[in-house]
């Protein structure tokens, strides 16, 4: 595969390229903390679906932290999927071939294998709100009662919002008015409508949060 152009695609974090593996400096900084928390949260022997897997580095860190899980990466972006597949060789047999999933599309869970957990990092602020809506609707259809849905990223929390997240919100909106750091309340309300209870809010480095939702039994 030839080198990509130096232009970073609009919906991506900054990335560098080595062979087919992309490296994201931000994933490099946060992957250990994310994997550490996921290792506690994910069910035993879980089949984990990741939405918007980006470079694929989170898949490797999570599978190295938990040797019993199987990871299903996905992304609508072909170059990202190629990178996820290239990184998957770090955990032979445990990271499956990446799927082309765009959660803003209706019926995105159709044909997916049984899924015990969904993980989605840094996607819903850098995409239109309909992506969060599609994620919530599809997760409701895909997951069984008791299964976790884990979101990681920045969130607005009223007066508690970190100034860096307000600045990030403004910069996202200047790039695309449909993007923006999401209000935690809005995300919780959306997920409640789709049958998810908020179970844990975990403070993460650099003013990010991990929100752990669980599908209710109803
Ligand atoms: C900022 S990157 C985050 C990548 C990775 N999760 C991380 O935290 O390093 C956002 C990712 O979301 C993906 N994405 C954007 N729109 C999406 C959609 N509608 N459905 C699924 N993924 C989407 C992009 O292709 C990109 O890989």
Automatic annotation (TrEMBL):
<dbReference type="Pfam" id="PF06080">
    <property type="entry name" value="DUF938"/>
</dbReference>
<dbReference type="InterPro" id="IPR029063">
    <property type="entry name" value="SAM-dependent_MTases_sf"/>
</dbReference>
<dbReference type="InterPro" id="IPR010342">
    <property type="entry name" value="DUF938"/>
</dbReference>
<feature type="region of interest" description="Disordered">
    <location>
        <begin position="1"/>
        <end position="29"/>
    </location>
</feature>
<protein>
    <submittedName>
        <fullName>DUF938 domain-containing protein</fullName>
    </submittedName>
</protein>
């Amino acid at each position: 595969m030839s080198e990509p152009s130096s232009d970073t695609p609009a919906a991506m974090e900054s990335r560098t390229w080595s062979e087919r593996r992309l490296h994201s400096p931000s994933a490099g900084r946060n992957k250990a903390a994310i994997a550490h928390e996921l290792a506690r949260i994910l069910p035993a022997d879980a089949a984990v679906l990741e939405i918007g897997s980006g470079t694929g580095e989170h898949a490797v860190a999570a599978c190295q932290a938990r040797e019993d899980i199987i990871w299903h990466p996905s992304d609508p972006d072909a170059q990202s999927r190629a990178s996820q597949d290239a990184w998957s060789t770090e955990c032979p047999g445990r990271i499956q071939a990446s799927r082309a999933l765009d959660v803003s599309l209706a019926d995105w869970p159709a044909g997916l294998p049984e899924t015990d957990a969904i993980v989605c990092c840094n996607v819903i602020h850098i995409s239109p709100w309909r992506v969060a809506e599609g994620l919530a609707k599809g997760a409701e259809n895909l997951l069984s009662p008791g299964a976790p849905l884990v979101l990681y990223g920045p969130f607005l929390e009223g007066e508690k919002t970190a100034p860096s997240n307000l600045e990030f919100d403004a910069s996202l909106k200047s790039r695309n008015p449909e993007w923006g750091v999401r209000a935690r309340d809005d995300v919780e309300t959306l997920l409640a409508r789709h049958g998810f209870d908020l179970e844990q809010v975990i403070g993460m480095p650099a003013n990010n949060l991990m929100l752990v939702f669980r599908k209710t039994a109803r």
